[in-house]
Amino acid sequence: MGELVDFFLRSRHFILFVLLEVLCFYFIINTSNYWSATYFNTSNRYAAQVLAWSNAANEYANLRKVNADLALENQRLNAQLTKALQSRPEAPAEYRADSAFADRFKFTVAKVVDNTTQFANNYITIDKGSDDGIRPGMGVISPTGVVGKVRVCNHHFSVITSILHSEYLVSSQLVKANEIGTAKWDGSDPRFIKLLDISRYKPVSKGDSVVTSGHNSTFPPGILIGRVLSVAPMPNQTFHDITLNLATNFSNLSFVYVVENRLQAEQEQLEKQVDNEK
Predict the structure, then answer these.
(1) Helical H runs in the chain?
(2) Nearest to 210 by CA among 239, 259, 170
(3) Which stretch of DSSP H or E encloses residue 155?
(4) Does the pLDDT of residue 190 top 50, yes or no?
(5) DSSP 3-state assignment of 143?
(6) Across the chain, which distance is largest between two alpha carbons, in Å?
(7) Which residue ranges run through the membrane (predicted)?
(8) Rounded to an integer, what is the distance from CA 108 to the centroid of its chain?
């Protein structure tokens, strides 16, 4: 307390000067319309700027919650869209999918906690595991396209084999050309992927969308994989050399959706039974 008193005694002249300046400033503002208006406008401008900075800081602090809410909303919309597509497939008008088939896909939102893109075989770790109903073999998509397939799980985490893996294949379909092929990463650039097994005698257009085909039990049909970037004939072969721009940007992957096909085990069991009888 004594040191505080000593400080005021030592600084009494400066403190008096500051008080007199504030008093003069007060009298100037209150006795002059011009300076009063100037002060009012200036203070409002700076107050508005400070308020804008405060709002921007609050919005930035809430981005994590906003992103999580958007991911949950996308999960709901994905389920509704997939159900609608499964209920109305490209088939004769008299065909109608039964309710179990239309509702066979379920989506679970998860956050990416680790992700590699620089290796020949890349993996992704998410914060959902067996306690959340995740199992090996389930497909994984992003809000923009295909991501990969669940490889292993524990109670709270799962590791996904990324589509950026040299041995991972995805049954694919060219939308305009209506041709079935296989998407496979060549291990070079994480922005691009190859589309294999498309006959060079089939017309392929740059910009054509490539989506998951109905010839797999992992993904719903129609999930975007990429768009055709370039088309060229493969030397000494009867196939196109097709490069796609990947729809999913793996460099900033934050949220993904794990796809459960409720009828997958039933389908694969039947197909395996047929293969064993051959």
Answers:
(1) 2-10, 12-31, 33-61, 63-87, 99-102, 264-277
(2) 170
(3) none
(4) yes
(5) coil
(6) 104
(7) 12-29
(8) 13
CATH of the domain at 141: 2.40.10.340
**Token pair of 207 as six digits:** 């910009």
Q: What is the pTM of this model?
A: 0.66
Q: Which two tokens stand for residue 208?
A: 């054509």
Q: What are 219-263's pLDDT values in tens digits? A: 988 899 999 999 998 888 899 999 999 999 999 898 899 999 887
The token pair at 46 is: 């700076």
Secondary structure letter of residue 234 according to DSSP: P
Angle between the 12-31 and 33-61 helix axes, to the nearest 10 degrees?
110
Structural domain containing residue 116: 106-278
Given a contact cutoff of 8 angstroms between Cβ atoms, the answer to whether 198 and 173 are in contact is: no
Residue 77 lies in a domain: no
Query: How far apart (Å, rounded) are the C-alpha atoms in residues 39 and 22?
Result: 14
Q: What is the C-alpha separation between 232 and 228, in angstroms, rounded? A: 11
Helix (H) or strand (E) holding 133: none
3-state secondary structure 82-115: HHHHHHCCCCCCCCCCCHHHHCCEEEEEEEEEEE
State the Cα torsion 168-169-170-175 to the nearest 10°. 130
Q: Where does residue 61 rank: exposed (0-12), middle (13-18), buried (19+ CB within 10 A)? A: exposed
